[in-house]
Design brief:
- The complex is a heterotrimer of chains A (290), B (291) and C (235).
- Chain A has 290 residues and is mainly α.
- Chain A is built from eleven helices and no strands.
- The termini of chain A are far apart.
- By secondary structure, chain B is mainly α.
- Chain B has a domain of 202 residues.
- Chain B is built from eleven helices and four strands; from the N terminus they run ααααβββααααβααα.
- A two-stranded antiparallel sheet of chain B has the order 1-4.
- In chain B, α1 crosses α6, α1 packs antiparallel against α10 and α9 packs parallel to α11.
- Chain B is globular.
- Chain C has 235 residues and is an alpha/beta fold.
- In chain C, α4 runs antiparallel to α6.
- The N and C termini of chain C lie far apart (45 Å).
- The chains are: A mainly alpha (290), B mainly alpha (291), C alpha/beta (235).
- At the A-B interface, α4, α9 and α11 of A face α4, α9 and α11 of B.
Chain lengths: 290, 291, 235
Amino acid sequence: MLSSYMDHVLTMAGINAIGAWAVGIAIRSGQLSVGHAALAGIAGYSAGLITRDGGSFWLAVIVAVVVAAVTGAVLSALTQRLDHLFFALATLIFGEIAAIVATDTERLGGAAGLASIPFETTLTMVVVTLVIIVLVEVFVIRGSRAEVQMQLLAHNPSLVDLSGSSARRQKVVYFTLSAAAVGLAGAFHAHEFGVVQPRDLEFAPSLDLVVYAVVGGAHSGYGPIVGAIALTVGTEFIDIPGITRPVLFGAILLGVLLVRDRGIFARVPLRLGEGRGVTRSPDSAGSVSA
Amino acid sequence: MSENVPSFTRVIQAIVDGLMAGSLYALVAVAFSILWASVRTVNLGLLQVSAMGGIIAYSLSANGAVVAILGGVTAAGVVGLLIHFVAIKPFLKKWALLPIVASLGAGLLVRGAVILLFGEQSKRMPQLVPTGTWEMSGVFIRRTGVVVLVVALAFVLVGLYLTARTRIGLAFRASSWNADIAGAYGVDTERVRVGSAFAAAVAVGLAGVLAGVLAGSVHPYMGEDNGLKGLVAMLLGGAGNLPGALLAGLLVGMLESGAGMFISGALKNVVSYGLLFLVMVVKPSGLLKER
Amino acid sequence: MEHRPLLEVTGLSAGYGSALALNDVAFSVDEGELLLIVGPNGAGKSTLMRVLMGLHRQNAGQIIFAGTDISEMKPHLRMRLGMALVFEGRGIIRELTVEENLDLARFTQRWNPGLRDESFDRFPILKRTLKRSAGTLSGGEQQMLAIARALETQAKLLLIDEPSLGLAPKIVSFVFELLGELAQEGKTILLVEQRAAQVESLATRAMLMRQGRIEPAPESLEFTEMSFDQYLGNE
């Protein structure tokens, strides 16, 4: 049987994996979010408030997921007009605001956070969730219209609009799904650590999720999962406070992007923009002009 | 501020403080705007480069103000340029999100290196510029703040002049509107990009140094606050619009300080971030004309 | 003594993605010539101009300009060697002033203020609108600005891409008359046009371009009988 330490590490890794997969969904549909930890945190606070006072765990989880989904939907809908970079900025600001509000709200425990949350999360729960996610990826998403849709949204949203659908609406849908998933992770997180703190909503944890996703391969379904598990477990064993994480993450992130600019586990090639480098065309068979 | 102070004085105080903070936001905003104009993306590593500039100035402070400031700014320029070559340039023709994410990664590396070399703790910045406070009819003006304001504004204004009136400035502006036309008429667009990357890095480095001077201390995480507000100011002023970035930065500074003064000191950040978020949502192309 | 053409193009192929816009194009331009390339929409004419200027990379082929292989050269270096492109749609930077647009020509080492005076002589309108934003000029005025800018670079070879596009007939005549004058003055011009009727008489030589391929104009067409437009089915 696993020691409780290993159990904890693996559970943490699994929770991060769920969160990373969630961010992956957002990225795959063309929305880079550096505020997902805030969504997770909001979910965690919601769930914690319920279970703290004796409420049912699973009810709390459902509420958490719904709250996160709604928040995500609103956030996404409001920011549709922003292009990639500014969308990311908006999510960043959203996260910062959420963290500040959490710090300033007495009911939520202020800067110390919401404590005395019962320890309900088990490794089994997390693993089952991940298994479900992988199954969904393999049997539902892979090769389906959804996958193509996401790619189009990310690289060629105008094509989507031309074909009659609304790119914006689709993006909001995917972001909502992504938010719901990270909300689940947030609920698990709250009940694994017994506490939700404002600093869990900030930029740094959100960035962690993005790093996991990108390193593992943000264009595949399981890439973020592998990335999250690998990096979480890895940093458990090599950790110099303040230094390891930024250096390790930064180096790996850069290294992976440079060597294989899609992450380690990508399936789908990125479309190159036009620019001065043109892809080699198929051989014109050396035809001679008249 | 006690309630007895007449509100007119408080308004002036808010404006003064706001201009001082805002000059740094403007500096960062202009930096990002210059970079945007020439490469249409953002180097998020510059946030950490800014902090690095401040910390290097701190570590050189024993050698006097000039060496410290120049040292910090130059180091920032070099490192920022390095990040440009490693994390931005290789990804310019590919997916739009890649340079952003890669530069985030590079920024992490920089922060890690800074913490490794200088530690995580906040450090007191020795006095590099005259300190003390003037008082004029109830309004308190910090000498340090004035120096920071003047230096930051001077840097920005010189930059604006160069882009508007010199041949190099024309090359820069032409290639920011249309790189093909500029290229066909003798502008080495690669050199413009490199020059912009260096200028932006130098500017954020200066912002970091000045921020350290203004606050009296430096720490590895100091780049993010100024940087974030500077980025949003760039957006408010219209991405790529340099004078817009200057005005927007000053405006953000004053709005923020006004919020702190008249609404609540504690909620200052919420209000300013909230306002910025609101503007981003309502008018995504910024308050002024975009480029 | 061997006489080399000013511009030699061999085996040039280029495309966007997997569609070939230029298919094994080869031709040459002699000094003092006005070579006219006529072709319908989508024939690849603009791609050809962009590739010649270096704005678009070729997949295969070679470009030799004044004896130098410029196939890999960046656009600004080609300009400095003596090529100038008058873009399709004028290629004016609307947000800059007329003066600033003209000043772009100064990035060669060959500029002198006398050239600006020449521009004013040829196109007095430019002097009047010098400080105005170039976007406020009419289509015809922009075309004059574009040509003036190209001339100020003292280019050895002028690449002119569909100058008549979108202009009123009177202006079009003016522009073509101007091109004729330039040709008389001995300037080397590579002119690409869709509707050939008015320019045939100006050209020293002509070629057809269709679907990325170049063909010399059929002998029988030599300016006397059918016009190109008729040949191409434009009329």
